Structure prediction request, 340 residues.
Amino acid sequence: MKSRRRPYAEQRPHDLGGGVWSVPVPIPGNPLGYTLVYAVESPQGPVLVDAGWNHPDAWDALSGGLRSLGFDVSWVRGVVVTHFHPDHAGLAGQVRDASGAWIAMHENDAELVRLMSEYAARDHDDFQTDMLRRAGAGPAEAGQATGARPAPPATPDRVLRDGDLVDLPGRKLRAVHTPGHTPGHICLHLEDADRLFTGDHVLPGITPHIGIYPFDRDDVDPLGDFLASLDRIGELGSIEALPAHEWIFQDVATRAAEIRHHHEDKLEHLHALLAERAEPLTIWEAAAMMTWNRPWDDLSPMLRGMAAGEAAAHLRALEAAGRVGRLAGVDPVRFHALDS
Prediction:
């Protein structure tokens, strides 16, 4: 039986044994509630797995939580970021300022951070609006669904590749490249204790957002990458998973298989929707017909934009599998089923 997701107010720092601790760090105004930041012991100071959202309340929770466990944030040796999203990488720069720690992330996400740092906010808004228009959103919806862009995270000092060992004296913490949620998402296998920090790749009660940006790209397949990454994590067996959200759980392989089946069902349902339509669908139309955690009409403009990104990833996976085609030379882009 799965645990209940507890609100942030009920969360406390915990000693998880074996030289690993967890610190819940709030995400203000976000239904996820908090990020679980982990500290891994080493003789030269703890290394953090993720750092939390860049907000004063989050900083107080992280630094105070470490203090309650017997650490000072100034002792932190390094921060390994599972992926560049702001609820994971946001405070890494502040930790570095306080301690001199290094920051590491996968080379693919490090490149995205660099590009984000060079991209003006106005250019970002124009890019988002045009991307939504090409997906089939009307002008009003395209303008409303963009949302504010968080400040780019701190540029990492070190990059990791699949199989690299993290600089963690006395321990064996290995990066496992698990793209999908982001191109450079990593899980971290603590091999000396056979525990897996899963970031957002495998969560116990929800599935991570898998989108494609821009929506109409045809040169990448993030959902296909994600499903392959799930299979790879499944090969690790029934080890303990330490995710970035919700709760710690046993048997990562079983949960990875459940998430794969969830997306396989969505792919079959989407293909059936396309097959029964007389006319090809835009990404926006497909998203409006898919099943989400609430009805399409109840989704905010920002959530509709995220749903469209996920619909685009599913359409692209079907296209890569030869089950869906896109019409050439049309704007907005449209997709149709290729088999029954």
Observations:
- The chain has ten helices and 14 strands.
- The longest strand covers residues 20-26.
- Residues 230 and 256 are 5 Å apart (CA to CA).
